[in-house]
Design goal:
By secondary structure, the chain is an alpha/beta fold. The protein is built from ten helices and 25 strands. It folds into two domains: about 200 residues, FAD/NAD(P)-binding domain; about 130 residues, FAD/NAD(P)-binding domain (3-Layer(bba) Sandwich). The strands form eight sheets. It has a five-stranded parallel sheet, with helices on one face. It has a five-stranded parallel sheet with strand order 11-18-12-13-14. The chain binds flavin-adenine dinucleotide.
Length: about 400
Amino acid sequence: MTQSSQNKRTRVIILGGGFAGLTAAKTLDEHLNIGNDANLEVTLIDRGGSKYIGATNQFVLAGRKQREAVCNNFTPDSVKLNNVNIVVDEVTQLALAHKKVITQTNVYEFDCLIVSLGIDYYPELVPGLKDAGYNLCSMDDVIKFRQELAEFNGGTVIVGVSGLPYKCPPVVHEMSYVVHDLLVEHGVRDKTALIFTTPFKAAVPVVNPVVMQGMMDECDIKCHYEWNMQSIDSASKTIHYDEGKRLHYDLLLCTYPQKGATLLLETPDLCNDDGWIPVNGRDHRTTFEGVYAIGDNCANKVTFSGGRVEPHPKAGGFALVQGEYVAQVIIHDALHPESAEWTSPPFEMSKGNGCIIEGHGGRGVMFEVNFFDNPDKPSFQVIEPKEGLVEEKMAWVDSHRHTWFNDSD
Ligand SMILES: Cc1cc2nc3c(=O)[nH]c(=O)nc-3n(C[C@H](O)[C@H](O)[C@H](O)COP(=O)(O)OP(=O)(O)OC[C@H]3O[C@@H](n4cnc5c(N)ncnc54)[C@H](O)[C@@H]3O)c2cc1C
């Protein structure tokens, strides 16, 4: 142990106990658990309440899981972290120049800050949307939509995307297949037009042409790509898109417009106008020294084939790797304060980030992305659709719940 690492305590604060924040906290916790010598004091702050992994929305929509079976309460007792102070509180202000975080009840000083506050929903960006459509990212809304669908007698159902970027690009396809299956189950599929609309050319460019469009065709789901939702008239049940296009709907399930968490919109020195935090794509440092941002609240972009530059896809799988990586950077910096930059990661960062996309008929597609070797130009590997990946996805969700929470049985 170096003299400086013996003496200097590094106060690390992690804001937000979702995929990204919990993973960073877990990585730091494990480091402290095995008696490693970085002199770290770690605090994780989250507003608490009921937490669920986004992917479980489609399990609940399909009726494969009940809400109670996928939710965990975020409390100091329920979170499985031995060496991390768990604080349940609302963060109200970031005084970054003074290295302070202000919550409803306290003020915390930090040496290192990890911001992982995720996104918030802004339905008002599409006038009329809040009264017209269910938010497919909200568990409450998905449950209400499932109930409405059970009483639906036929007509037009639209599943779609109201604005970019949004969490988990393939989720709208996954939800469309589930909606198709529910309409079949209720005996009204032949009386229902199922339509999919998105501003994207393709949700996941490498996967879309290979498998997803084929499955949409198989389910007779009419797809409108590069359609931008502008407003909704709930009286006439009409969705207005750009260039004067419009569609009638009877039921609407779509993503609500998303931006950085509300607090971030109120922190312009850290964020851009939409509340996203610009970061260095490799180590997730922000413009403030000692302040990192990971997960959905980041503004980083990636260049896809053909030179298209788009926001880095927002997904739990990517948030996990970012959380682990930044925690390792902090451990390294605490142990070796004299060395300016961490150039040799202690774990294999070239590994891909796997993501299982639920397809139709019990099939799934696994694809892997490598954002780290060249963060500006990711490389993809698609594994052709196969049976059993849906169960694998449920197991993936459960394994994280078990890793993070005591009350996950
Ligand atoms: C329907 C759906 C399906 C999905 N499917 C998948 C999938 O199959 N695979 C996949 O990899 N990803 C999936 N995702 C995406 C994944 O859930 C997100 O990318 C992931 O949750 C991002 O993690 P995060 O830590 O950045 O944010 P979050 O998980 O949203 O965590 C942010 C935390 O910050 C807290 N917070 C915010 N503001 C404050 C404040 N002011 N004070 C205190 N606490 C605050 C919040 O309460 C929350 O706990 C899906 C998402 C949805 C909605």
